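anyone seen this seq b4? input:
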Amino acid sequence: MSATWYECKVKYRKINDSGVQKVTTEPYLVDAVSYTEAETRINEEMAAYVSEEFKITNIKVANFAEIHPFENSDRWFKSKVSLIAYDEESGKERKTNLYLLVQANDVKEAFDNTNSMMKGTTGDYTIPAITESPIMDVFPYFTGEEDQLEKFKTLRDSVQVVEEVEIDENVPAAPGFILKEEEE
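predicted toks r here
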């Protein structure tokens, strides 16, 4: 199931660089299954960052096909990607636009990051536009199972592969081990 991203605008008091408190409204993205969950999630996320009261002024579905964070990048860019397909019936090229939200430090890096994300694409594409996005932060959905999955992967990778050995049925099994007989 693909993610549905909701853009949530949050109004709150923010202290600017010169130490002056100012009321500001900033957009954030949350991954959710409904408007109700998006509202709940943005409330939880913002409560961790904002010590004073805040107000959610708008929630709407964001039109991003994919979100691509990159380490050591602090800004978000909206990349318009045009997929080019040949329509055999009409004999013409057809363009389908999609939008990616890509993290980068500047437009050139956003262009490079967009190209790296599109590398596996089998069809032709162009990148007709990249603009800096006002999105302040992105909050992907986290089920809590990711930690369990990482622990499992770590455990799985640390287990050594044991060669098949012949079992002597006259030797009793160690406590906690059950010897299974081969089925014929």
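The longest strand covers residues 75-87. DSSP finds three helices and eight strands in the chain. kinda curious what u guys think
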